[in-house]
Amino acid sequence: MGLCLVTMPLLKPVIEVVNLGRISYADGLQAQRTFIQRHLNALSQQPTAEPPVNAVLLCEHDPVYTIGIRTARYPIKEEERLKQLGAEFHRSDRGGLITFHGPGQLVCYPILNLAHFRKSVRWYVGELETTVIRLCHRFGIKAETSPDTGVWVQNDKICAIGIHCGRYITSHGLALNCNNDLSWFSHITPCGIEGKGVTSLSQALKREVTVPDAVDLLLETFAKQFDCMLRH
């Protein structure tokens, strides 16, 4: 009598969507740490009442300039100059150089254990870029990658990407310009790239595109790109 083998379909990873609203950069960092710690506790087999959760944190930030770990030192005089514009200034452990976050910009912080997907930081960054490119295409915008990290519309960056990954737990992520005030970028060299500019969904389309207008499309393209299920 022959054996009948039944193959069960592979379950897709489940990612919790957490909409934080408009918050300070410091509060955004703390929210990330909470989810990161749950992953780390599980990896260390520490008893915890809270199981690890793959999550996507969505937010807008109050005006803030941030620098990444590639910036060994940033002149105090420059830091003070930027603060005088009415923005905060933060040093972070993400990759990349200086950038700006502010209202009208959709910030997405995936807190993922890449062991549930693919243990490759290069792959992960590429998936984030492709997610945003596909979102832009849904809006009718031709976007692409370049040798410089991020997503570009010709020579203008529409989405900055800077991540941190420790023990294959990701943090930080992407910042998509929707209808934010781009003049904030004129006070810095965004991401340290000379001779290039910034743009937004609104500027590229010559019509108003708000963060709420972009959220659902971002989540849809993210779910398809990462082959996961989103839980709200």
UniProtKB/TrEMBL annotation:
Record's keyword annotation contains Transport: no
InterPro entries membership: aa-tRNA-synth_II/BPL/LPL, BPL_LPL_catalytic, Octanoyltransferase, Octanoyltransferase_CS
Gene Ontology MF annotations: lipoyl(octanoyl) transferase activity
Matches recorded under CDD domains: LipB (cd16444)
Major localization class: mitochondrion
Family annotation (Gene3D superfamilies): Bira Bifunctional Protein, Domain 2
Domain BPL/LPL catalytic: 50-230
Reaction equation(s) it catalyzes: octanoyl-[ACP] + L-lysyl-[protein] = N(6)-octanoyl-L-lysyl-[protein] + holo-[ACP] + H(+)
Subcellular location: Mitochondrion
Record's function text: Catalyzes the transfer of endogenously produced octanoic acid from octanoyl-acyl-carrier-protein onto the lipoyl domains of lipoate-dependent enzymes. Lipoyl-ACP can also act as a substrate although octanoyl-ACP is likely to be the physiological substrate.
Family named by the database record: Belongs to the LipB family.
Protein name: Octanoyl-[acyl-carrier-protein]:protein N-octanoyltransferase LIPT2, mitochondrial
Organism this protein belongs to: Chiloscyllium punctatum
